[in-house]
Amino acid sequence: xxxxxxxxxxxxxxxxxxxxxxxxxxxxxxxxxxxxxxxxxxxxxxxxxxxxxxxxxxxxxxxxxxxxxxxxxxxxxxxxxxxxxxxxxxxxxxxxxxxxxxxxxxxxxxxxxxxxxxx
Length: 119
Known about the structure:
The protein is mainly alpha-helical. It has one helix and no strands.
C-alpha cells in the first residue's frame, strides 16, 4: 500500500485572512488634521499673547499719563493739611510759630518708628 500524496498541481490555497475593509481614514490624514488644528491653535495663541501685550502697554502708558494728575492731587491734599495744621497751631498757641528756617513749603517726611523697642 502506497503513501497518500498530494493531488497533482497541489492543494488549493487556504484562506486564513479575512477580507475586511480598513475602518476610518489613513493615518496620514489624521496626522494632517491634527497638524492643521495645532497650527490654528498656535496662531490664535500668538494673536492672544500679542493682544495681551498691547493691553498691558496701553495700561502702563495710561498710568504714566495719570502721574502728574495724581501728584497734583496729593500736593493739594498736603497743602490743605499743612494749612489746617497751621490753623490748629494758631488756635492752640495763640500765635503762629515756625519750626522751620524758611516760609517755603517743604513736603513732610514721615519716619515709621517701631512700636516695641528691644534692647
